[in-house]
Amino acid sequence: MTALALPPSARADGRIATPAGILAYTTAGTGEPLLLVHGLGGTRRTWRHLIDSLATTHTVIAVDLPGHGQSDSPAGDYSLGAHASALRDLLAALGHSSATLVGHSLGGGVALQFAYQFPERTDRVVLISSGGLGAEVSPMLRVATLPGAATLVAGLGRLPVGLTRRILPLISVVPGVIAREDARSVAEDLRGMARAQQRRAFLRTARSVIDWRGQTVSASRQLGLLADLPVLVTWGGRDRTIPPHHHRTLVQQLPDAHSLEIANAGHYPHETAPAQILPAIHAFLRTTQPYRPALPVPRTSSG
């Protein structure tokens, strides 16, 4: 059963200085920390349908990744590792030693990288339409890595959002582009591309994980860690940005993982089907214990 939602007034927005620059975030609730990580070109606004419900049991922190939303641009490194380090710095600045990470799309790849770099700081991982699980990706994202993409993205960002929302459903009939269910979410992300900083973060981050052939970064090296780490994998059955079979394959590789496929959702199930995804997240958090990696046995001198 989905927990009762808190009133929006219970949320608080903040900005905090970290070694990665000033990071913007929204927080709500009390309890174990739950860090929400948006996808490529997105912002923390993507979590608006989940925050209040999750805050009934956890301290929820929704962050704008470096260069995105209201966060400062990084010095130049937009890699998954740099984003993961920024999240570590954010948690430390807010006084949290560890957290459960919930990542959407690129945010799922960042969450996996965080678990790889900082296992002692990772309680659980929730992957929503996660990247990094296979090479295939939408042609629209591959185009973003080509020369001249900045001009195209800037033009799309300047279109009135109402016009974009009318155009995208028409484009959705083209195989492999976007799901009709995602038109509103994609339109909102494109609106953000009118800002030079957001556009730069989108392009540089995209080029750090994608080229014209597809995704270039794989989470295969992290799968060994995930065997003991509590993991929830959820995705939309109509996702055209990242193929659903990526997530089905991951679940087969991780027999202890919790999973949920939402048949009538696309790439943004947390936005378009929150009533279906929230009970799964609440149940996962309630029935699993935070991961605690075994400490290495100290070597002793035979002196």
TrEMBL record:
A molecular function GO annotation: hydrolase activity
Alphabetized InterPro entries for the sequence: AB_hydrolase_1 (IPR000073), AB_hydrolase_fold (IPR029058), AB_hydrolase_sf (IPR050266)
Protein's UniProt keywords contain NADP: no
Top-rank taxon, per record: Bacteria
Keywords: Hydrolase
Segments forming domain AB hydrolase-1: 33-141, 212-274
Protein name: Alpha/beta fold hydrolase
